[in-house]
């Protein structure tokens, strides 16, 4: 087993080397003025992680996060929930309408910015700070609840058929597939910024969610299979605020992610989240841009059209990156399996999956912070002119993006801080779970050697992906 | 192989990012080996 792990580790490290310097950092503007070379940040981050590991091993001998202790601080009236749902539906209708009826230039239309900046990037930031607000505004959930409410009023309280039991074996697999498909659209699909196509995809997504909710029940479907609801909920678990069923509770940071149930598909979803974000950075780098044409040429020689060849090439890159992330995690888990009590690998993979959540958030912050800060400002003029037809509803149509709001150097420090803090949080979560699982703190610490290696690998990979932002 | 060598200039600096991973994995492997030895020989 050890030899297999060593061979696999060698393969993963070789893959890291063979996937060289890349760029990322959307919308990065200006030159970074750093006091030390960028690679030294990776070294410093590794030192911080090792120091954190040693600190945890010596100062954290008992589990502290395994029991969720919440305090309810407020309750949201039913009318408030209904109002938030109505706002969610109205915003969804506006985005779809703008996409279908508005100017089809991506930068002039509200839809691409809302989908790729405010929704995809903005909501994870908000969720990590103040909890699962998306659940309140989720338009599909709100619509389904509205229909169910009307159905009960019209046909009687017991008239609606009971939903089917959600298949346990499906777990979070539908969510993992949905996030992978969305990432494919964002990173691979050639018409990804076409407003009308985004609107049609939004409608198709809504229809799929409504069918799923009608079959398996609104709450079960939302909790397991609605890709965006599951995705945002994972980030919200890092927040000290917990919104659920009209009550608002608070708990210690990180505590909310510990009860994450490792149903099938959970690890796949988290690896997809990290892998797709990584590929977003990697695909903008010089290495991918020099490697991709070779693959494309091979595909063209097979008779594919140029558009199809580009998409197949990027699909290969996307899938390989997700697999690489999954391999790294699997290596950590396989290493843990060799220590002490021989917990089955599948059990360990599930039990420690929650430690990947802060890493996924760290990757989102590191890769998309600049996109949110710069392109998020476009909301000011797009809100006044959502269709891009020259209207000026709020008098802000002439607003522009201020690229001086934060310097490139400032963004780099935010990215490094996000990656380091995210991985230290991952270490804390993994250590606390190990302490709870293994019979002695010494065994628990030994099991975490492998997770430390995984965390250092993810940190180095993340900084390596970001570091070439100025080199592309 | 030709491709990798031809682009060596692109990616050699990436090795600097890999170095901490190699060092940590090496250190942890030695540590794990020593722990195992201690386990087998409690005296």
- Beta-strand content estimate of chain B: under 5%
> Gap between N and C termini of chain B, in Å?
51 Å
- Quantity of strands of chain A, as a count: 3
Question: How large is the radius of gyration of chain A?
Answer: 23 Å
The number of distinct helices of chain A, counting runs of at least 4 residues, comes to: 18
Number of domains of chain A: 2
Characterize the overall form of chain A. globular
Which structural class fits the helix and strand makeup of chain A?
mainly alpha
SSE pattern of chain B: HHH
Would you tell me the overall average pLDDT of chain A? Answer: 88
The gyration radius over C-alpha positions of chain B equals 18 Å
N-to-C order of helices and strands of chain A: HHEHHHHHHHHEEHHHHHHHH
Major sheet of chain A: 3 strands, antiparallel
Unreliable runs of chain B, pLDDT <50, ≥5 residues? none
Give unreliable regions of chain A as ranges. Answer: 1-25
Fraction in helix of chain B: over 70%
């Amino acid at each position: 087993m050890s030899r297999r792990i060593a061979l696999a580790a060698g393969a993963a490290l070789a893959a890291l080397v063979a996937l060289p310097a890349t760029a990322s950092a959307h919308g990065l503007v200006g030159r970074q003025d750093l006091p030390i070379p960028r690679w030294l940040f990776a070294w410093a981050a590794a030192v911080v992680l090792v120091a954190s590991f040693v600190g945890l091993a010596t100062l954290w001998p008992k589990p502290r996060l395994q029991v969720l202790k919440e305090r309810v601080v407020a309750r949201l009236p039913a009318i408030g929930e209904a109002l938030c749902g109505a706002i969610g539906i109205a915003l969804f209708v506006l985005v779809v309408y703008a996409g279908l009826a508005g100017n089809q230039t991506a930068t002039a239309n509200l839809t691409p910015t809302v989908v790729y900046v405010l929704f995809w990037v903005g909501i994870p930031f908000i969720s990590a700070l103040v909890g699962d607000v998306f659940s309140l505004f989720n338009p599909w959930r709100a619509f389904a609840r509205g229909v169910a409410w009307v159905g009960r009023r019209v046909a009687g309280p017991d008239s609606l058929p009971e939903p089917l039991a959600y298949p346990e074996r499906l777990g979070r697999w539908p969510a993992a597939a949905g996030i992978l498909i969305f990432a494919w659209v964002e990173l691979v699909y050639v018409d990804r910024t076409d407003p009308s196509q985004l609107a049609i995809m939004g409608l198709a997504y809504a229809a799929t969610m409504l069918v799923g909710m009608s079959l398996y029940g609104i709450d079960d479907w939302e909790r397991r299979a609605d890709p965006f609801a599951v995705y945002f909920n994972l980030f919200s678990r890092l927040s000290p605020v917990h919104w659920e069923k009209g009550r608002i509770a608070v708990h210690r940071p990180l505590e909310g992610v510990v009860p994450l149930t490792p149903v099938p598909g959970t690890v796949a979803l988290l690896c997809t989240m990290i892998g797709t974000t990584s590929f977003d950075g990697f695909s903008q780098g010089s290495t991918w841009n020099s490697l991709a044409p070779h693959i494309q040429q091979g595909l063209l020689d097979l008779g594919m059209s140029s558009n199809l060849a580009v998409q197949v090439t990027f699909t290969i890159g996307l899938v390989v990156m997700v697999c690489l992330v999954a391999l790294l995690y699997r290596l950590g888990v396989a290493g843990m399996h060799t220590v002490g009590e021989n917990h089955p690998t599948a059990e360990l993979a599930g039990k420690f999956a929650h430690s990947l959540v802060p890493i996924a958030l760290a990757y989102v912050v590191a890769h998309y912070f600049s996109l949110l800060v710069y392109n998020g400002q476009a909301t000011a003029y797009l809100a006044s002119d959502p269709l891009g037809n020259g209207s000026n509803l709020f008098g802000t149509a002439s607003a522009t993006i201020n690229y001086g709001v934060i310097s490139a150097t400032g963004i780099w420090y935010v990215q490094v801080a996000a990656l380091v803090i995210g991985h230290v949080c991952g270490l804390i979560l993994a250590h606390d779970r190990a302490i709870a699982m293994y019979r002695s703190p010494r065994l628990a610490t030994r099991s975490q050697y492998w997770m430390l290696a995984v965390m250092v690998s993810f940190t180095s990979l993340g900084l390596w992906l970001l570091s070439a932002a100025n080199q592309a | 192989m030709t491709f990798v060598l031809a682009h060596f200039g692109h990616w050699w600096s990436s090795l600097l990012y890999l170095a901490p991973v190699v060092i940590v994995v090496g250190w942890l492997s030695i540590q794990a080996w020593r722990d195992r030895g201690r386990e087998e020989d409690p005296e």
